[in-house]
Amino acid sequence: MASVGRMTSSPNTPWAGYQPVQAWDEAVDLDGKVREPYSRVYAEIDRMSGDDLYSRAEALASTYLAQGVTFDHAGEERPFPLDIVPRVVGASEWDIISPGVAQRVKTLEAFLADVYGSQHCVNDGVVPRRLIATSQYFYRSAAGIDPANGVRVHVSGIDLVRDQHGIWRVLEDNVRVPSGVSYVLSNRRAMSQMFPDMFGAMGVRPVLEYSQRLRAALAKSAPDDVDDPTIVVLTPGVFNSAYYEHSLLARTMGVELVEGRDLETHNGRVYMRTTAGRRRVDVIYRRVDDDYLDPVVFRPDSTLGAPGLVHAARLGNVTIANAIGNGVADDKLIYTYMPDLTRYYLGEEPILPNVDTWRLEEPEARAEVMDRLHELVVKPVDGAGGKGVTIGTKASAQELDAVRAQILEDPRGWIAQPVIQLSTVPTLTDDGLEPRHVDLRPFAVNDGDDVWVLPGGLTRVALARGQLIVNSSQGGGSKDTWVLGGVRQRRGATTPPPESRVELAGIGSVPQAAHPDDVEQGQQQQQQQQQGEPSC
């Protein structure tokens, strides 16, 4: 990646004292030269005073607080931290990321169709049968449910990291109910208002078409006999940490937001209760985890879904997106087989490599990891939101002993990876601009004919110095991700960028309980928050 000049030495600029660490800094190299994609952002901030930059950051936070853009952290609703400095991805980098993510989704689609069908990958020795059978999220009840247009992964969030050499790698796959796209949309609207001239002049690619792309894909997944499908977003309800996202997506797609108590099934079809009577539902974009979706098939005590949904899906009378049972593809042991599965199903080499990973159920790998536990990262194969992760270099002797015991007790439940020094991006802190570690979750929408990758995605940033876990549930924040290569505004143009004029607010605060079942459902929603929908 080309550099365009050294950083200023002026003590009066917000850049004063900015010093990249040994990780790959995406804005400035170790010689103090600004990388080309960041040249305009660097110059714009260099013209500001520190007070001006902090003032803009406070205005940005106030905007988020007014819009109710919040997340749950340690049981407390907080405004979601959005950093004032955007993350910039050059067009040439995106030309690797976008097809790499699309390739990954196509492989995952092929794997899920196979694993819930003939299981050729097992019979041909690509994936061990025992691995599938012991996966927590492999549901035999999903076998034989064939989607109308063959799509099981309607929406995916493929987590990427950039290593110390600047190479993009896949960290994990999220094809159950991936969350976080609402922050992408809200971040963009807020940032395009904060920096309208820079946003337009740099040719940042738009993201706000996501909702219409998603709606079109969901419509194409409807049962074959339906010309004008009724689509709904199924939410666990107001107690769920991602309720803001559920509400925003329903409103921007122009579809109904429903809870399980709003749905009922008759003769193998799903209906929505409305003030005008029952209305047939054809596509359910569910944000309820499998275990809570249908009490007839899964948890009998769940009131978050509706009885009979799985039966209706099996009959082909309703499409559930994402498909039931997709979680087997999120298993971090399956992740280790993805390069082989890409070659097996697509006949292609992976565009985006995995992070090197040890399978701890294999004796030789387990022995090596036990000797090197203090220098590796250990993760549960079914974990999400950064929970259960142990970073050996930061762990105490007692913590390492506890992890060692857990591995020996259940080797299949764990993987190990080298510590990846995630790339860093300039981030505004109480001490000025400092490098902070980031990852990237690009979202992809599959309509059966094409996999469209949202230009950018959710950049999550670890706000604490030296922290490598970026999840919001672990105290992280976010950045607006600017992918270059779009249409640039002419010099001197004064028209605000179109994305700054798109209305995303108006959802308001989360309503108080208005239904006698809300208290009971709230307990289930909070439980699902711990076990179900992955936290971003």
UniProtKB/TrEMBL annotation:
Residues annotated as domain Circularly permuted ATP-grasp type: 86-462
Pfam families associated with the record: CP_ATPgrasp_2
Protein name as catalogued: Uncharacterized protein Rv2411c
Region named Disordered: 473-536
InterPro entries: ATP-dep_Glu-Cys_Ligase-2, CP_ATPgrasp_2, UCP005522
Low complexity composition-biased segments: 521-536
